[in-house]
Every structure is written in C-alpha cells, then in structure tokens.
Amino acid sequence: MNERDSETIAGICEQLGMVPCERPADADVAILNTCAVREKPQERVLSRLGELNRIRRRSNPDLVIVVAGCVAQIATDELRERGADIVVGPRCYDMLQEALEDLTRGCSLTEGGARPVAEGLPVCRTTNLKAYVNIIYGCDNFCAYCIVPHARGREQSRKPTDILAEVRSVVATGARDITLLGQNVNSYGHDLPGSIDFPGLMRRVDAVEGLDRLRFTTSHPKDMSDELIAAMAELPTACEHLHLPIQAGSDAVLERMGRGYTYEHFRSLVEAARAAIPGLSVTTDVMVGFPGETPTDFDCTMRAFEELRFDQAFMFKYSDRPGTRAERMGPKVPEEEKQRRLVELVELQNEIAREINVALEGEVFEVLVEEPDPKSEGHVRGRTRQNKLMIFPGGEHLIGEIVPIRAVRGYLWGWIGEAEEV
Ligand code: SAH
Ligand code: SF4
Q1: Staple 11 to which of 53, 123, 220, 384, CB 3.0 to 4.6 Å?
Q2: What is the pLDDT of residues 138-188, one digit of tens each?
Q3: pLDDT in tens, 74-124
Q4: Where does 218-304 show beta strands of DSSP type E?
Q5: Which of 9, 69, 76, 85 is nearest to 34 (CA)?
Q6: Do the strands 107-109 and 389-393 form a parallel or antiparallel pair, or are they unpaired?
Q7: Model confidence over 33-87: pLDDT tens digits?
Q8: In the predicted model, is pLDDT for residue 421 greater than 70?
C-alpha cells in the first residue's frame, strides 16, 4: 500500500515537472514515505530525517523536506519540530501538489479520519508488468495492536467504475499481474450503494480483456467467505495464492488481539481453500510476544505452523504502538524472550518453506518473467502464479513473457528452474 502511495507521490512530482536525482545533496525536495506499523521503521524515519537535516545544514540550505505516510499522520508535530517542512498523511495527497508549488511555507496536511481519499491523482508506476490497485482505503477493525486505523482512517471503498477504469488503463500499458489492495479486502463494498462485494468485484476485474493474473491482499480471516474461495477457484485470472494473516495460534491471544476468529476457524478456512484450489500457496503474517503471551500460547503458534505448513510467513516481534489498546495491556513480554520466540518460529518456518519447495521439484510452473537476475549472469527471474520466485537461464527478450518453467532445485526462497521444451 505504501509502495502504491509512493507511486502517487511520484506522479504528483512528475506533473509538477520535477525529476528524480541521485543524492539528497543535489535535490530541491526530499520526500520520505513512511510506515508506522511497528516501532523500528518509525525510528528509522526519524534517523533519516536527521540525516536530511544534516545535509541541509552542510551543503543544501534550500532543501525542502517532506514526510508522507502513516508516521506523518500520527507524529505530525514531532516531525515538524524535527525539521520536516511539509508533513502529509495518507488521506491528503491531493493537497500535496499545492504545497509543493509553494515551497516557501511549511505545512501539516494531516486531516485524517473520514476525509474522503481523492480520485484521479496522477501516478508514476515503477514497473509496467505488475500493478497495485487500491480498492478500499483505511480500516475499521481496530485490532488491539494495530496503528493502521489510527493512521489511515475509516474504510472507504472506491467505486467499481473507478477501479475498473484503473485496471483497464494499466492493462492497456502492459500490466499482466494486478494486485487489488485493502487492509481488509473482504470489507469491500459495505459502504457503497447496491450489492457489490469483494467476490463480485473480482469477477468484474477478471473479465477485463488482456489481464493474465489477479491477486489481492489482505483478506481478514474473520470475513473470508465461501464465495471468495469459489471466485478464486473459478476465475481464470485469480492466482493460486492466498495471503491470510493468522497473527497467533492461541485462542486466548487471538481474543485479546480482537481478531474475531479462533484457530479452529482459521484452520477450516485454509483447508477449504486448499481443497477448492489445487496448487494453492498460502502465506501469512504472525507476531510473537503480544502482551500476556505465555510460553504455552507461543507453543500454540508453533503447533499451528507445523500443522498448516505455510509457503511463506512474515514474522514480527510485537511492538507497542501509541494509542492502541494493546499498549495498555500487560504483562509485556521481555525483548530477549520475544527475540528467542521469533528465532524459534523463523527456524521452523524456513525449514517448512524449503521442504515445500523441494517437494515441488520437477513440476512445471507458469512464470511471468520480470527482470535479469541480479546475481547470476545469463539468468532471468520472475514469479509463478503462486507468487514464488523462479530463476532460470534465459535472455532479456523473455522479460514480460509468461513461460512454462520446470522447477529443478527448491530453496527457501523459490527455485532454480529451466525452460520447458514446448
Ligand atoms: N490489514 C492487514 C495487516 C496490515 S499490518 C491484516 O489485517 O492482516 C501488516 C502486519 O504487521 C500485520 O499483519 C501484523 O502481523 C503486523 N503488525 C501490525 N501491528 C503490529 C505491531 N504493533 N507489532 C508487530 N507487528 C505488527
Ligand atoms: Fe490493522 Fe487489524 Fe485493520 Fe489489519 S485488520 S489493518 S491488523 S486493524
């Protein structure tokens, strides 16, 4: 979502006639787009801002510093005090153009909450082949640990006509793989007139001529419907990949997180999806060390990972976020214990991911070739429909093609493959 926002910010800059440059020391404007979801990335923003301030003092006194994104929204005053000239939150990019035209005044553009996100902002995409398309902004779920509803405000579904127009336009300029974005795509449509819902939207996007691959992220387990599984199974463009964040394996922890499902329910969703969609890869998000997570709770997460065998997982240590319910919950798990649990879980998951990929050696996958492999001469790389990486010998003429590739050697990250004789 942040990457997609950065493409909008780049589009606004491009429309103003700005061009990218290599070093902040040479820039008229430096823009940091930021993530507030965990403490670490937020701290990094402050240190980057410090660096930019030093560059301004030393060699570039007219440098204008802009901070955008979720940190801008939740730490506006601190950022202004620490030298940011323009601070712009994720619902306010429509106001950025005017602020950038008038570089003489500092300002905070951080109206949040239910402010409508504007349509029709310019966009400068970083790749032609793959595109992110927002379908719903904000989040109303308020999971106990999460800053997103505070930073990105209330849910706002985009109109299907606007979404379809964007999809058609990116497909016309060469996109073959589209990811529909929302904090919870399953909430799509509840605030729109008529009966459009997420599976219904998928059907309409699938019908766009020229699209090869359709993905989405993220689907919240509490709202995932049989209709969604049916749409994934049925629609030719819908990729065999489901990202379904589990967050924890213990019902007690899930309850305190306010996630609205039990482990058993989560497991039944994964089973139903795997049964309906052959070759499905399932990935997840999880955190360790949520306040009050006991060794027994953590064990439930370990057992869940053993049982469900995810293809990949984004694994995090819980960190307190200002103003969330979990910030006030206790007891906090000590940092060393969080680290120990994370290492244990990562080791288990790495082993599982490697085993899954090794077991698929010999299978043929459709690969959308994206770029030359940066590490091995004469090789290119791309992704399968399951969103796994495949590296294989081939020339740059293959970039943009979808080709059948046999997985030869499986690794944690994907496969080394070879072109299949057609
Ligand atoms: N909307 C998505 C998640 C967006 S945030 C969903 O509901 O699944 C991405 C991931 O960051 C979350 O899935 C969670 O695993 C992690 N995360 C969110 N808040 C966190 C916190 N306070 N500490 C650690 N990880 C967190
Ligand atoms: Fe955060 Fe929960 Fe909303 Fe996801 S669904 S963005 S985890 S509050």
Answers
A1: 123
A2: 999 999 999 999 999 999 999 999 999 999 999 999 999 999 999 999 999
A3: 999 999 999 999 999 999 999 999 999 987 778 999 998 999 999 999 999
A4: 241-243, 281-288
A5: 69
A6: unpaired
A7: 999 999 999 999 999 999 999 999 999 999 999 999 999 999 999 999 999 999 9
A8: yes
Tallying the residues shown for the chain, one arrives at 422
Among residues 139, 126, 235, 222, which one has the least CA distance to residue 175? Answer: 126
> Which tokens belong to 89?
């939150």
Nearest protein CA to atom 4 of ligand 1, as residue = 183
- For residue 108 and ligand 2, the question of a CB distance below 6 A is answered with no
Instruction: State the helix-helix crossing angle for 198-206 and 226-234, rounded to 10 degrees.
Output: 10
Which of 140, 259, 316, 346, when mutated, tests ligand 1's pocket best, judged by the most ligand atoms within 8 Å of its CB? Answer: 316
Does residue 199 surpass a pLDDT of 90? yes
Q: Is the model's pTM score more than 0.90?
A: yes
Q: Report which DSSP code applies to 238.
A: B
Atom of ligand 1 nearest to the CA of 141: 7
> How far apart, in whole angstroms, are the C-alpha atoms of residue 210 and residue 174?
9
Instruction: List all residues whose CB is within 6 A of at least one atom of ligand 1.
Output: 37-38, 145-146, 148, 183-184, 218, 220, 245, 247, 285, 287, 316, 318-319, 321
The answer, yes or no, to whether any atom of ligand 2 lies below 6 A from the CB of 219, is no
Q: Is 25 exposed, middle or buried (0-12, 13-18, 19+ CB in 10 A)?
A: middle
Distance CA 347, CA 362 (A): 25
Evaluate whether 291 touches 332 at the Cβ level (below 8 Å): yes
- Strand partners for 68: 33, 88
Residue that the structure tokens 């997570």 belong to: 293
> For residue 286, which atom of ligand 1 is closest to its CA?
15
* Distance between Cα 37 and ligand 1 center (Å): 7
How many A from CA of 402 to the centre of ligand 2?
34
Q: Can you say whether the dihedral through the CA atoms of 341, 346, 281, 286 is positive or negative? A: positive
Residue of minimum CA distance from atom 1 in ligand 1: 183
Instruction: Of 250, 303, 304, 260, give the one whose Cα is nearest residue 282.
Output: 304
Query: Does the Cβ of 183 fall within 6 Å of ligand 2?
Result: yes
Q: Which residue has the CA at smallest separation from atom 4 of ligand 2?
A: 183
What domains lie within the chain, and their CATH numbers?
2-109 (3.40.50.12160), 127-239 (3.30.750.210), 241-359 (3.30.750.200), 364-419 (2.40.50)
| Residues in CB range of 300: below 8 A, 6 or more apart | 248, 249, 250, 251, 253, 263
